[in-house]
Sequence to fold (313 residues):
Amino acid sequence: VLGPRSFVAYAEDVTDVFEQHRVRHHLFADDMQGIRHSKLSNVRDVTTGLGACVTSVNKWCASKRLQLNTKKTEVMWFGSATNLRKIPSAVKDILVGSDIISPSTVVRDLGVFFDSELNMKSHISRIVCTCFYHLRRLRTVRSLLGQEITARLVSAFVLSRLDYCNALLAELPASTLAPLQRVMHAAARLVCNLLPRDHVTSAMKLLHWLPVKQRVDFKLCLLVHLAINGRAPIYLKDLVKTTASVPGRASNRSASNNDLVIQRTRLKLGERAFSVAAPRIWNRLPSNLKATTDAVAFKRKLKTYLFSAAYNQ
Fold:
């Protein structure tokens, strides 16, 4: 078992390997990820560079008496459907030693399923299937449970899955989020013991549940609140910038309202980035809410605000 200092030393060693090949990377306890981007004209250089990088990592692992399992190594191309079709099939594969790694259509990363076009439909589909499975199981014992216990079980088995990493669902079309909303409606009917065709709006209000879109907005605003108040990781702090910190804009009204700078993007997909979607939603909040520094009070006020906006109260 590696101690903290040994793990840091190992992480620094493998980081040097990625940096030598100019590959951005993320390191986890038992997982390593390399990232490169390029134009369509340089795709072959990317595959060659990634192949050389993974080969070097494989050699580094062997020098530390570790083994890189190429059968579990995955590669995925991200981009628009048009650009992905333009990539020749012959250059999509990555060669690691004598092993050829073909690109995957869906990969799992920390429990989230990513597809090539980042439309998150595969991830949403899997969440919906899992949630309905648990709802069916709970329905068989609903007559033995009261509303309070049923609500707790639904929160543990269903709502927790809807909320996990839901910030990745920011700015998705309503049609894409609709299956998740159907899960919430089914869960509300189960908790309140309603019939399949009964309206659920009153039940959602009674349970004080936010709709799916507002739950995503809640997560984004909470992450921004933690970032600007110094309670978030550095990689999140670097993605948000207050208007007051920009030279020449400190006297603007947006600076006094604690607004954030919204980064410009050329692509529609870029609007879903945290550095774009989160500031846009944050700037819509009331000034007194954005000025709240206590996390507990902020979450309470934020949920009240989003709840009122969702149900027009």
